[in-house]
Amino acid sequence: MDYAIEMLNITKDFPGIRANDNVTLKVERGTIHALLGENGAGKSTLMSILFGLYEPTEGIIKVNGKEVKITNPNVANDLGIGMVHQHFKLVHNFTVTENIILGSEPKTKFGTVDTKTTAKRIDELSKKYGFDIDPSQKIEDITVGMQQRVEILKMLYRNADILIFDEPTAVLTPQEIDELIAIMKSLAAEGKTIILITHKLKEIKAVADKCTVLRRGKFIAEVEVSKTSEKEMAELMVGREVDFKIHKPEIQLGNKVLEIKDLCVKNTRGTRAVENFSLSVRSGEIVGIAGIDGNGQKELVEAITGLCPITSGTLILNGKDVSGFSIKKRIDSGIGHVPEDRHKHGLILDFKLKENFIIHGYNTEQFSKNGILNFTKIDQYADKLINEFDVRSGQGKETITRSMSGGNQQKAIIAREIDRSPDLLIVVQPTRGLDVGAIEYIHSRIVNERNAGKAVLLVSFELDEILGLSDRIAVMYNGGITGIVNDKETDEKQLGLMMAGSKIEGVSDHE
Amino acid sequence: MSKKNEKIIIPLIAVGLGILVGMIILLLSGKDIATLFAGLVKGLTGYDMLKAGSAVNLRYPGEFLVSTMPIILTGLSISFAYRTGMFNIGCEGQVIMGSLVSCMVAILVPMPNFIAVVVCIIVGGIAGALWAFIPGLLKSKFNISEVVTGIMLNYTALYGANYFLRALPGSSAQRTVNIPENAMLGSELFKQITNNSRFHWGFIIVIIAVVLFWFIIEKTSFGYSLRATGFNKEGARYAGIKVNKSIILSIMISGFLAGIAGAIVVQGTFGYGRVMVAMDNYGFDGIAVALVGGCTALGVTFAGMLFGLLKVTQPLLQTFGVPKEIGEIISSSIVFFVALQYAIQYYLLKFTSGKKKKKQELQPQGGDVK
């Protein structure tokens, strides 16, 4: 076999946790190899070792059959290994070309930076793989999907033969995902070797040749993707049977918990982001808001939770007008919020995990008395949430939240918000970056809230999630609603059209 | 290495490196290194190493403690604001206002014994808090940087205070009259014990401040909300914490601590108000102390003592024939090395992992790696 990468019997220890335990990964040249595992299974650690960010405690790495020691990312680059990170590392007010050459700028004979010849080379590369990128555009002016292509180009420009993609589709729209898959295939056809870190089975099925499965830091299996089903891979990953279906019993709808009337919101740039938006959510139902990112969902949610001011319109919560309430008062009136941006809003990253759990209730009877925090109660509560929601981290409740994996951070937020059991639960992208097992669990908890007679407002950019969870679906386009449809009477195609702006007469909003 | 250990080890390494720099400079200028340590030991304990068998002079430790008191307080002041995400560079001005108001009230308002001391300290603190309210309000309402307003208010305080001090009855161009005895923190008992040093009751206030600082920041829900704001303003806002209120309150408490420092300088160290040509730098020393002390109560206490020691050692070194600037070189080198903490962290990591590697010999060698 002609292997581009061989990582043999890799073990990596961190204080309190063994992230990789005797893991072996062999990748054939010119193939796409998926690395599948839940959050915290050790995928990122393994790839960081390959990219020179960590050194393994034990084990051997071979690149193109030769044993190597990768002590830092520069060594990895020299070996032709490139990494497309989940969070792009681009300078926003630089052009595509400037970003690509950053760090190894070619000089003209006068000593200035030679952008002309490089722009030409980038253009050639872009055409060769069908990237469709204009090298003179600034990063801030192009879409997220395009930015990702710049990251890929950066690797190709540096003659990388082995490309690591770290959860590349997490930030993309469905169309962009299709395009990325095409790009990856053409790269492999050109002889590049690709390692794809992901937990999305659909994508593995669509693009990968082989798949290595990790679970809790251990190597579980290497499978031939074409001979395996999604369900089998999911079970290898989770270690038990997985149920993809969401079970929702019929239940009686109750009162209107949230009523939005003619809401108008301006965004930070001062332009209208939400226009004459009306919608209500009853107790016992999940209302999904579908739509492509950037059509006013963020502003809508922030207006309801009080994070951004409303221009006009009213918000009624349990029959009370809360439009003028402070954030705190809205929370106390029964709003729970799983925010879209978990680093900016959801968590205080430098706090310990247990401190993040009490962020809403720190000054209530539950956790403090006469202004003094009760750490016994706080510890007990943290243990309870960690157990119940299976939040994994190095030092348990004492872990600094910043050092936790993204999926476990998200679980922590969900645990905190759901445990408060608010009358209105607003969840935005609740399962982004989570693995099958965690998604299954979180979906069931959201449905439980609905069954318990709470109102749930779900905002998601993933149609599967919207279709699976919602009782009714409102599609947002350009700050307004293009239609409200019943979950059972619609499909992806119809929603897709509505997301693109075509109005559809669906069910009315209870009136 | 755990984070906790790092927090202690890095400042210690920085202190060591700072003293090393001082030693190298002494060597280069042809002085005896022993004098530096003799100076430090004498400043700390009053024992003169260079004159074997000489008696211990408690005046030195007394003066050492006198010089640490205000800078521990300003160190706490800077740290308190910093934990809420603010850089209270206006601390200096708040110290000056604390001094001014404490002095004015002591001279102008006749008060019964015991009450006078306490009242003067409290009004000093309040003056500092009110002076800090200005940058706090501007920050929370208009998002104006507290650094810019703080620096400007430092000068406003300096020259404004000078005007009022000169206007007090009986003031000369340089100083006011002595404040009444009952507003003083000094005590005959301490004077007797410490061979006529200026050591005073202010140390009790400092201890209370250190304990309260720790308690508020670590143990109360109020401190929790301040820390949340300091780490992530948007995250705190999301959680319903009133960020603007936190900002104003925190900088006012910071100002209160600075004001108390100013009051102690008047009521303890000098006993009168001084018309100042330039700032005393208590506030700026506080920045260094907070930095070295990692903005924690205990850290600030030790850092404050270290900087206080370096300060009182300066005149001692001069008597040993060493230029007093050596003390300043050492203290600024320490600050420099603490600011370099990431570099120290980096080398620490290299050092410790290097040791591990040698022990285990696990890394296979090979490949054409540069």
Automatic annotation (TrEMBL), chain A:
Keyword set includes Cell membrane: yes
Span of domain ABC transporter: 5-241, 258-503
Domain of life: Bacteria
Annotated compartments: Cell membrane
InterPro entries: AAA+_ATPase, ABC_carbohydrate_import_ATPase, ABC_transporter-like_ATP-bd, ABC_transporter-like_CS, P-loop_NTPase
Keyword Cell division: no
PANTHER family reported in the protein's UniProt record: CARBOHYDRATE TRANSPORT ATP-BINDING PROTEIN MG119-RELATED, GUANOSINE IMPORT ATP-BINDING PROTEIN NUPO
Protein's UniProt name: Simple sugar transport system ATP-binding protein
Organism from which the protein derives: Anaerorhabdus furcosa
UniProtKB/TrEMBL annotation, chain B:
Keywords associated with the record: Cell membrane, Membrane, Transmembrane, Transmembrane helix
TM helices/strands, residue ranges: 9-28, 64-82, 89-108, 114-134, 199-217, 247-266, 287-309, 329-349
A GO molecular-function descriptor: transmembrane transporter activity
CDD domains on file: TM_PBP1_transp_TpRbsC_like (cd06580)
Top-level division of the source organism's lineage: Bacteria
Pfam families tied to this protein: BPD_transp_2
Membrane topology recorded in Swiss-Prot or TrEMBL: Multi-pass membrane protein
Stretches of the chain forming a coiled coil according to its record: none
Compartments reported by the entry: Cell membrane
GO cellular component: plasma membrane
Name of the protein in its database record: Nucleoside ABC transporter membrane protein
The organism of origin for this protein: Anaerorhabdus furcosa
Phylogenetic lineage: Bacteria, Bacillati, Bacillota, Erysipelotrichia, Erysipelotrichales
